[in-house]
Specification:
The complex is a heterodimer of chains A (601) and B (318).
Chain A (H helix, E strand, L loop, with lengths): L4 H25 L3 H26 L8 H18 L3 H23 L4 H21 L5 E2 L16 H24 L1 H11 L1 H6 L4 H27 L1 E2 L1 H5 L1 H14 L5 H21 L6 H16 L4 H15 L4 H5 L3 H5 L18 E12 L2 E12 L3 E5 L6 H8 L7 E6 L2 E2 L5 H8 E3 L12 H11 L4 H15 L14 H14 L4 E5 L7 H16 L3 E5 L3 H7 L2 E6 L2 E6 L1 H6 L1 H8 L1 H8 L1
Helix pairs in contact in A: 1-6, 2-6, 2-9, 2-11, 2-12, 3-4, 3-5, 3-9, 4-9, 6-7, 6-9, 7-9, 7-19, 11-12, 11-13, 12-13, 19-20, 19-21, 20-21, 25-26
Chain B lengths: L2 H35 L7 H16 L9 H27 L17 H23 L14 E8 L2 E6 H23 L1 H11 L1 H6 L4 H23 L10 H15 L4 H21 L2 H18 L13
Antiparallel strand pairs in B: 1-2
Helix pairs in contact in B: 1-5, 1-8, 1-9, 1-10, 2-3, 2-4, 2-8, 2-9, 3-8, 5-6, 5-8, 6-8, 9-10, 9-11, 10-11
Chain lengths: 601, 318
């Protein structure tokens, strides 16, 4: 659990308990059997939405094929009952097991894709299974009845019992969802959704978390599917693998509020009764009315409140609170105390006494081409511990590509790069980060919807710290860059300078031995520049080793111990700032030959 | 298997692959304009195909406005009439819904607005499918033409192996190829075509060059819709269809576009032809129920193994 999760957990569970009790009491008033069925379907689709939300809401891996898991659960329960007379009490867990297995099999190839390719591919799975099911002759499978062993086979003549079971399952799903949201799992998913590359560079193993979310999501989906089959007593490929099933999950979650525990519950509570009632009342004249309602609902919600009802209402309430002067900042940032007490993981030994003789970073003959263009060509340099190395060069010189190769975003064609003797090449970005390499980006890559503190905690989690240490380290890192006053503000509200500093804090939170800073001063005014420089100077005082790409020469002259000049991918010059700026080749690369001849004349 | 039957089956699969493939090719060009070039993820493309089929059906069936054209010319003219009708529908969809989640509005935003596009077009798709069920009913219909039960007979070429060319498919094939060539010429050589391609390639730069990007997008979306609708009208002459038919083809379209390489009209056409071939050849070895599953498997393999397409080159920048 993340720090500060306690009270909000308690609040969430109180609300959940109260809502469920009221809901169950309400079922006592309903006597019409069709409406009783609707009362059961609300928690069913809500739970399916919760399942979808874990993968697609928090993790941002948009899936239009969640019916795969739903259908697998439904068919497992039904076929196990038909073939082996297996009770749904065991059939549902079996279905969940198969759902989890399917998640792994689907995830391994599909997570290689991103964005819309991922969404489209996920769509293909349930449809392919649908046709296979038809081919295998499972057109319509009914569950056998076991009147004498009703309880043992989850067979109740009182429909309210199904509603009760449905509500209990939903409670279970919501608890899982809340735990995920409040843990490092949830933070990792949110970070991946908002900026996968930044998450990787902060040490988050995106692949692993995405896979885990798919497995949890798939198991929950199979759970709902199995229960749904038990409630309806009959399954067809279309009713459990069909497009409308996948759409249900998407629709209730988007409508209610994406990436919120309550979203799917709110969405299902409004849309399911609405659509089902319309279907019951008008279905004979207007046979597709349910789908039309869903279609209109998601278009309207997308255009009017793209994140769903929950967020729109919450934002409105928060704005109201803010207007009354309630400051969230002080409540969230625990400040000094946490930082000073009980450090399990002291900040990495950065003091000069820890310096060793050999270079910290050793790059030799590093090359990387794009097609015919050699963006980085046989680059060699060294960085000593505690040194600040400035990497300069005209636009397109290959500076950012060099960083991308060093921290595993791109692979190298040849050459070597060693951190403290260990090779950095051939590793994934998050692995390089865990070796002790922090990175900031030319264009700030933040997680705009997360508070500043959480943004920085991502970096601490990436380094594998415990919850307690992560919060303490992140708070301290914010303090080091002077942003501790803004800890509770969503990153999207920061100024450019603050974003740069926050990104720096995020890199620091992972206790790096080496920082790769890509144009940290870009777009800053003179005074802002000085503030950031002061922070960097402070880091140097602590013995931090830094490679910085920068165009602002006056800043670089003050900051860097040595320069490496790149041009057309090659090292043009290396040396002390004074010598380098006097170097004829460097002047030519920057200002052209003409200028050089005039100067010499 | 008897070699004569094998030869006959293979030859017929080849001819059917070419004819149906080219019709798929036309269908894929429509999505190629929208997805391949403008990068708008349109989930409702299958429903535009369905609307094309029904437009043609309601124009040329007995007692309708174009029924005087007769069963030979009517269905194909009806298919072409679907183009302007669905062009307008597509442009309107873009104007009121799709443009709000695509184009200049989403340049540089989180995931380039794909989330919003997927959701909005999924909504459109649900409305059109289910609304179609309300308007058209769920009983499958067909555009009747005597041509669909007539065939040219070539051969026997090997023993008794004979190639049969279904006349409806043959005419549809010719119309599809002509439409594809026409569109290609328009995009390549007219002012409008250049504006469309410029707007799609780099909307921001196009704005600076004085191109009305919103209008260009609207037209391109309408064109993409209309082209797919023509393909739908042509297909309506040899298959029966209902309001949910679009779904079977949306994956085929995406397969074709991705296979042909994003951003290439020509590629989309060849992608469609390839998918048509795969489908016809899978019919030789697979039971009919699994043919659609085969398409999905092919689609998955394409996006997993060669997401840059058969003819494209990947260019991703971190």
């Amino acid at each position: 659990m993340r720090q500060g999760a306690g009270p909000s957990l308690r609040r969430n569970f109180t609300v959940l308990g109260a809502v469920c009790v009221v809901y169950l009491l309400a079922t006592l008033l309903v006597t019409n059997s069709y409406y009783q069925l609707i009362m059961t379907l609300v928690p069913v689709w809500a739970l399916f939405g919760v399942s979808w939300n874990i993968l697609s809401g928090y993790g941002g891996q948009l899936s239009f094929g969640h019916a795969s898991f739903f259908g697998i659960g439904a068919y497992t329960v039904t076929l196990a009952m038909v073939r082996w007379a297996l009770t749904p009490w065991l059939g549902i867990p079996l279905g969940m097991l198969l759902g989890g297995l399917a998640a792994v099999l689907i995830g391994i190839p599909t997570f290689r894709l991103r964005g819309h390719y991922f969404a489209l591919s996920m769509l293909a799975y349930p449809l392919a299974i649908l046709y296979v099911m038809q081919y295998l002759g499972f057109q319509e499978v009914s569950m056998p009845m076991y009147r004498e062993h009703a309880l043992r086979y989850m067979e109740f003549s009182e429909p309210r019992v199904y509603t009760l079971i449905g509500v209990l399952l939903l409670i279970g799903g919501v608890v899982v969802s809340v735990i995920i949201e409040k843990s490092r799992f949830g933070l990792a998913l949110l970070a991946i959704r908002q900026n996968e590359l930044a998450a990787e560079a902060a040490g988050i193993n995106a692949r692993r978390w995405k896979m885990l979310s798919l497995i949890v999501s798939g198991m929950l989906g199979a759970l709902v599917g199995g229960f749904y089959a038990r409630v309806l007593l009959v399954v067809t490929p279309e009713s459990v693998f069909g497009m409308l099933v996948s759409a249900q999950a998407v629709v209730v979650t988007l409508f209610g509020g994406v990436a919120s525990v309550w979203g799917p519950v709110i969405g299902a509570a409004i849309l399911v009764p609405l659509a089902e009632t319309l279907q019951a009342e008008l279905g004979t004249y207007l046979p597709g009315i349910q789908g039309v309602v869903y279609g209109i609902a998601i278009i309207a919600i997308m255009l009017l409140s793209p994140d769903g009802l929950f967020w729109t209402i919450r934002d409105r309430l928060l704005r109201h609170e803010a207007a009354h002067g309630v400051s969230e900042v002080t409540a969230v940032a625990p400040d000094v105390k946490l930082a000073s007490d009980g450090w399990a993981l002291a900040p990495a030994p950065l003091l000069p006494s820890a310096r060793r003789s050999g270079p910290l970073l050793q790059v030799q003959g590093l090359s990387r081409s794009f097609g015919g263009l050699r963006a980085v060509a046989e680059v060699s340099f060294e960085v000593a511990e505690g040194e600040i190395l400035g990497i300069i060069g005209p636009n397109g010189a290959g500076k950012t590509t060099l960083f991308n190769v060093l921290n595993g975003v791109l692979s190298a064609d040849e050459g070597s790069a060693r951190l403290d003797g260990r090779s950095m090449l051939g590793r994934k970005t998050y692995e390089v980060c865990r070796m002790g390499v922090g990175r900031t980006f030319q264009v700030v890559r933040s997680f705009p919807r997360l508070p500043v503190l959480d943004n920085v905690i991502v970096g601490a989690y990436g380094a594998g710290m415990s919850d307690r240490d992560a919060v303490a380290r992140a708070t301290q890192a914010l303090r080091e860059v002077g942003l501790h006053g803004r800890a509770g503000v969503p990153a999207g509200q920061l100024t450019n300078k603050q974003l740069r500093l926050m990104e720096l804090a995020r890199a620091l939170a992972g206790n790096p031995r080496l920082l790769l800073l890509d144009e940290t001063l870009a777009g800053l005014g003179r005074e802002e520049c000085d503030e950031v420089l002061a922070v960097l100077a402070h880091l140097r005082g602590q013995g931090m080793t830094i490679c910085i790409i920068e165009h602002t020469m006056h800043a670089m002259m003050r900051l860097a111990d040595r320069f490496v000049v790149l041009d057309h991918g090659r090292v043009l010059a290396t040396g002390f700032p004074r010598t380098v700026v006097e170097d004829a080749a460097v002047i030519e690369a920057y200002l052209g030959k003409k200028w050089l001849t005039r100067r010499e004349a | 298997m008897d070699p004569e039957i094998l030869v006959e089956n293979v030859l017929n699969a080849i001819t059917a692959g070419i004819t149906i493939g080219c019709i798929y090719g036309l269908m894929c060009i429509g999505l190629g304009l929208i997805f391949g070039i403008m990068r708008i993820v349109n989930f409702a493309q299958g429903e535009l195909l369905m609307l094309g089929m029904f437009t043609s059906f309601y124009l040329v069936s007995e007692g309708r406005i174009l029924s005087f054209l007769g069963p030979y010319w009517g269905p194909f003219i009806g298919a072409m009439c679907a183009a302007p009708a669905i062009f307008v529908a597509g442009a309107a969809l873009h104007r009121f819904l799709v443009s709000r989640v695509s184009g200049l509005r989403t340049v540089g935003s989180l995931d380039e607005g794909h989330f919003g596009q997927l959701v909005v077009t999924l909504g459109i798709s649900l409305i059109l499918q289910n609304g179609g069920q309300i308007l058209f009913g769920s009983t499958p219909v067909a555009v009747r033409t005597p041509l669909s039960s007539q065939a040219f007979q070539v051969g026997p070429v090997y023993g008794s192996a004979t190639v049969f060319l279904n006349k409806a498919k043959l005419v549809a094939f010719v119309v599809a190829v002509l439409a594809a060539i026409g569109l290609y010429l328009v995009l390549e050589y007219t002012r409008l075509g250049k504006a469309l391609r410029a707007a799609a390639d780099n909307p921001t730069a196009a704005t600076y060059m004085g191109i009305d990007v919103d209008r260009a997008y609207r037209i391109a979306f309408g064109l993409g819709s209309g082209i797919t609708a023509v393909a739908g009208g042509l297909m309506a002459t040899y298959i029966s269809f209902g309001p949910f038919v679009g779904f079977d083809y949306v994956i085929i379209m995406y397969s074709g576009v991705v296979l042909g390489g994003m951003g290439s009209i020509f590629g989309a056409f060849w992608g469609g032809v390839t998918v048509g071939f795969v489908q016809q050849f899978s019919a030789l070895v697979l039971p009919p129920q699994l043919q659609n599953a085969a398409i999905f498997v092919v689609f998955l393999m394409i996006v997993l193994l060669r997401p840059q397409g058969l003819f494209g080159r990947s260019a991703e920048r971190a």
